[in-house]
């Protein structure tokens, strides 16, 4: 089965999911979006009001900040994949409950396997806790203590880098966090450069990780 067909199956499974009570409150599920061949997967917490209305992740104010942070390190939304640990909006934008994250993990894990990123960036406490405790078997000490750290995760026999940082929404409420977010995105930029150092193609042109990422995204669109 090709990636596009498998993605359609995942989306359908999320649309039909009744594994936790959140499906009763949603307008639209929010499976995620981006390149299925992305080198970077961003894992957020839960859809908000705008996301629930549109069925797309990170389309509100936090999404605008995420786009800006990506642009500053030379990436675009279409270069990466974005999803959340729960795919339906919790009522009144409350935090997702542990049992809701666990119920939705079947979809999250399918997405991780499908995209097979080189780097997973966790945004906020809930996604950080899920990746650390459920996937890495490490204790999660909170985003303030874990942000900016890079760890290895073995996913389906592949070594994946994990980088944790604040959820962009946190920087909207506390502007002091914006510089820390920028620092962590700079770490992501350096990490990508280390994972795929610049190469020379047959014409002698310098080929960077950005060229590789965008080439994968363009091939996917064809």
Rg value? 17 Å
Proportion in β-strands:
15-25%
Q: Given the helix and strand composition, which structural class is it?
A: alpha/beta
CATH class division = Alpha Beta
Provide a descriptive summary of the structure in words.
With 222 residues, the protein is α/β, with parallel strands linked by helices. The protein has a single domain, classed as Uracil-DNA glycosylase-like domain (Uracil-DNA Glycosylase, subunit E, 3-Layer(aba) Sandwich), CATH 3.40.470. 47% of the residues lie in helices and 15% in strands. The protein has 9 helices and 8 strands. The protein has a 6-stranded mixed β-sheet, sandwiched between helices. α1 packs antiparallel against α4. The protein is globular, with a radius of gyration of 17 Å. The two termini are 17 Å apart. About 5% of the residues have low confidence.
């Amino acid at each position: 089965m090709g990636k596009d067909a498998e993605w359609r199956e995942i989306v359908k499974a999320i649309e039909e999911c009744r594994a936790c009570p959140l499906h009763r409150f949603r307008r639209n599920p929010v499976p995620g979006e981006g390149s299925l061949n992305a080198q970077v997967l961003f894992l957020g917490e839960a859809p908000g009001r705008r996301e629930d209305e549109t069925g797309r992740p990170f389309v509100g104010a936090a999404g605008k900040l995420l786009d800006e942070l990506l642009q500053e390190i030379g990436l675009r939304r279409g270069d990466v994949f974005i999803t959340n640990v729960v795919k339906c909006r919790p009522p009144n934008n409350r935090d997702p409950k542990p049992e809701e994250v666990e119920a939705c993990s079947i979809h999250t894990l399918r997405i991780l396997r499908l995209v097979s990123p080189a780097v997973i960036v966790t945004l906020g406490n809930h996604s950080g806790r899920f990746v650390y405790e459920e996937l890495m078997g490490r204790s999660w000490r909170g985003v303030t203590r874990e942000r900016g750290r890079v760890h290895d995760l073995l996913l389906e026999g592949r070594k994946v880098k994990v980088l944790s940082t604040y959820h962009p929404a946190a920087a909207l409420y506390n502007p002091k966090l914006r510089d820390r977010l920028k620092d962590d995105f700079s770490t992501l930029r350096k990490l990508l450069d280390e994972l795929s150092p610049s190469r020379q193609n047959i014409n002698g042109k310098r080929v960077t990780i950005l060229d590789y990422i965008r080439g994968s995204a363009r091939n996917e669109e064809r």
